[in-house]
Design brief:
2 copies of one chain form a homodimer. Chain A is of the alpha+beta class and 255 residues long. Chain A folds into 2 domains: 104 residues, Alpha-Beta Plaits, CATH 3.30.70.580; 138 residues, 2-Layer Sandwich (Alpha-Beta Plaits), CATH 3.30.70.660. Chain A has 6 helices and 10 strands, in the order E-H-E-E-H-H-E-E-E-H-E-E-E-H-H-E. In chain A, strands 1, 2, 3, 4, 5, 6, 7, 8, 9 and 10 form a 10-stranded mixed beta sheet that branches. Chain A is elongated, with a radius of gyration of 20 Å. The first copy, chain A, starts with a strand and ends with a strand. Chains A and B meet through strand 3 and strand 4 of A and strand 3 and strand 4 of B.
Chain lengths: 255, 255
Amino acid sequence: MRLKVEFSYLGENYFGYQVQDGVRTVQGDIEKVLSDFFDTDISFVASGRTDTGVSAIRQVGHFDIKDDVLLAKIKNDSAKEFESLVIRINYLLDKDIRFLHVSKASEDYHARFNAKKKTYFYNLYSSKTEIPYFSQFALWVKYNLDINKIRDAIKAFVGTHDFTAFCASGSEVQDKVRTIYEAELIENEMGYITLKFVGNGFLYNMIRIMVGTMIEVGRGKLTKDDITKIIENKDRTLAGKTVSAIGLVLGSVEN
Amino acid sequence: MRLKVEFSYLGENYFGYQVQDGVRTVQGDIEKVLSDFFDTDISFVASGRTDTGVSAIRQVGHFDIKDDVLLAKIKNDSAKEFESLVIRINYLLDKDIRFLHVSKASEDYHARFNAKKKTYFYNLYSSKTEIPYFSQFALWVKYNLDINKIRDAIKAFVGTHDFTAFCASGSEVQDKVRTIYEAELIENEMGYITLKFVGNGFLYNMIRIMVGTMIEVGRGKLTKDDITKIIENKDRTLAGKTVSAIGLVLGSVEN
């Protein structure tokens, strides 16, 4: 049986999602708990890998399990039984990772290939001096930023484009065409801003480069027209720097 | 000379603002750094004491210093010299505390008595299962909450009232009349909510009790009219529980 899992994590103490030898990863922690719980090797597949330090509010994954192994742990595949399974697995997981929901999926369901829409948030604040409270979850930008310029220019990302200029060099992905459905600046009353991106998928470091480029816009170094040209020219060196992962959060995955 | 200080801190590793023997406090850290830096005992006064774990985005304080002691460290009392002073003091402070601004104040200025308006934020989220990313800075509420009921009922706090029902028992303050200028619910795109309170002052645990009471409203256990009656009756036992400090942040102080 294939099971779909919605899960959530605070990434700050993990070396990213994907399993790597010798370091703590979200996938590694989950596979260990599931394998121990079911007493059989379990491979866990997520909709996408998040980088070191990046959190997820609602990420999606799946894993396969033999019916008899599952039914040794729960009575049947009803929602109620899956709810009790979630509680028991959460009891075993570190408090930084939580399963939110488990359900039966069709055999051809795949958390990565079925992911139709992902929402990412990036928090940042502009201040001469660091604000320690914000720095827990937001990037500190020392420059003054013109918020309205960013609010306008970020719209240049919306649509279907070849995002080669916004992909880390060395990425092995061939097709760099992605669709951004939504890109917007949200002001938070506390004094920081959030850049929200909704797309059908994102290239390696794509959001962190888009945010670095928006900071250049806020500083007055680039305009909205420049963003359009940078996309067209497919030249990574014209876009802004890759900002740190500190402000990045995967909000949700639709599939 | 009396100096006014705007400062900021992440409260999670401190036993609150106020100096206490044997534990780490914000005031204790600041007084130690200032006393070492100026090589004389310095007492630091803030606009208000925040509880254990509570952060401040922009808090205000003052301290007195002899002119010759100050002028041994900076050339004159120009803004530029105070800016360099801020940088040097921040270098000595733990990264969880930052001075944002220092300026000369009149001799009768007092950070606490002159505080005219304070803004507090309280973050919380409703979810069956904990969301580890939110739990860094927001209270986890397991119940379903009707956001619109809270949005409406929170307005009952606005105005000048005797807030005895919303003050921790044992408080020594006699005059429990306070004015709330603004009380509102703000929805965050990421999925949590923030309750914002602006007032001329707040009693001990007042915000945490108001938030606990708003949770009862969101659950459908209390109505907006009940809030008005609870205020009138001045009975602490009718209001909600005092919620944890996890979601509380001092936003700013006007004086």
